[in-house]
């Protein structure tokens, strides 16, 4: 091999890249780079046209991105129909492994428009190391993990509409038939599952050993089926327990945390089956949507009265790691409950929820935010399970955290309000049962729980002693409102801040609405907001807040 092969390849690619700029893919253009294409065709072992596209993708990749048809059309400045004439060459380069293809996010429903190409890393490494064109071999399955990943990747192709459901199941059958030597596949084969259940089961096994505790059923089925009717029929049988995976105790449905959640996970039987086959499960658990990391919380400056700040500083200082550990140890020594519970109560929009986030951020604690209104199931008896699961999940998650996380019950009015008289009412029975569960959990609670409510006057007396801190948030007075206006809209003069504070009895949440309208105004109108604009926005906010509400509303 010549020592300067690297230089020749790079020089040829570089010339093709430069000459092809705005070439319009005219026939006369290719004659200009015929020598370079001839040389590269020998190196890549491809046709001249294929070598041409390898060169362009290689060069454009090194500009820092994948390459799609639109990138090539723009670079060549050609009629889009011209580049479609070379679709077979592009498909060959992908199928032979020279190009790695992935789908873009815009998902336009036209063949090829979503394809993004990258040169195979083996080829770029060979060129840069002055080596000949490497052999690009098909992916070889060496172990059970490789097989499961392969099946998962085929599912991704189905989800991206690259293949049909029929093709997905066809390839699954073929892969299973030639990999019966793996103990897990052999054991699963003896279960005599149909191809639909077989693929779903293997998919869930891969997700589980990859670290996901549970998987959304609906989302998986959307990826598997391109026919909505078949997907819905499968889902109905699955949820009703008629599916063989459920009947054979291979998969279980996870109790919903929220009404729209329907997740599945492997049963203990399946986990033991995996262990028998030498597969150990590790749980790098998938982060739930309601878990907020301190780093994800943006800093916000909040302004409260002196009495509110005094209580909030005490709570915040207590939750700092060193003080929290010291306090917990002393409470244990004194045989006192070691859990920290707080109730933040007051008018809506006064910053109760936001201050909990800021405390979590400053004390570097994970925050589990539970929207109580979303946790109440329409089915009798389910709400109790959901509430019980919240505490169970919190205890489990707390074991994984370096610091004790904060459990936030947001807008908890519905579950800590005065008990109803039952009178054969299923709703009253359910709500009373929920309260009993929470009272029992709080009795021996060892973590950090903060609840927010707008209706403290309706608080059930049984909850009063369960909350160690009870912090009231008042509607801000004129001085506090003026400071909030100044912090939100710094360009306002002090006198204007006081004028707005005096004229409009707003909470911080309502002032946030004015700020958002101001930002939207500047974007749409292309001009800075004036004080007169702010007065208009404030007047509109009053109209909205005084409007008569119909039907249900958040308390």
| 3D shape | extended
Number of helices: 27
CATH architecture of the largest domain: 3-Layer(aba) Sandwich
Can you identify the CATH superfamily of the largest domain?
P-loop containing nucleotide triphosphate hydrolases
Mean pLDDT: 84
How many domain units? 4
Sequence stretches where pLDDT stays below 50 over 5 or more residues: 545-555
The proportion of strand residues reads 5-15%
The CATH class of the largest domain, by name, is Alpha Beta
Strand order of the largest sheet: 7-9-10-11-8-12
Termini separation = 79 Å
The total count of strands amounts to 12
Main beta sheet: strand number and arrangement?
Answer: 6 strands, mixed
CATH topology-level fold name of the largest domain: Rossmann fold
**Approximate helicity band:** 40-55%
Structural class: alpha/beta
Radius of gyration: 31 Å
